[in-house]
Write a structure and sequence with these properties.
- There is one protein chain.
- The protein is mainly beta.
- It has one domain: Hypothetical Protein Aq_1857, Chain: A (Sandwich), CATH 2.60.300.12.
- The chain has one helix and seven strands; from the N terminus they run E-H-E-E-E-E-E-E.
- The strands form two sheets. A four-stranded mixed β-sheet has the order 3-2-5-4. Strands 1-6-7 form a three-stranded mixed β-sheet.
- The model has no long low-confidence stretch (mean pLDDT about 90).
């Protein structure tokens, strides 16, 4: 099972923004043709539930992509006022 934790700030922010988060890999391309999957967290549920497993973590419904590694992943929030966004620390994967 993928190990995921949320900071208190992330839990509070997500509670005010629907109480759901999607954790997935996002492809990032290098300058010489390489690529890596960087973990990203997005508020809300995925558009299609196929390929995701849903579970409850500290009162937040978390949708975890099936291709995400075992982790651990740590979700936090950064920024000020309306410019706040979710950030993830964790292992990178292949896409």
């Amino acid at each position: 099972m993928t190990e995921i934790s949320l900071t208190e700030a992330a839990r509070e922010w997500l509670a005010g923004n629907g109480g759901e988060v999607t954790l997935r890999l996002s492809a990032r391309h290098g300058c010489c043709g390489g690529q890596a999957g960087v973990p990203v967290a997005e508020p809300g549920a995925p558009r299609k539930a196929d390929g995701y497993a849903a579970r409850e973590i500290d009162g937040v419904r978390v949708f975890v992509a099936d291709d995400l590694g075992a982790g651990p992943y740590h979700i936090d929030v950064e920024g000020l006022f309306r410019w706040r966004r979710l950030v993830v620390e964790g292992e990178m994967g292949r896409v």
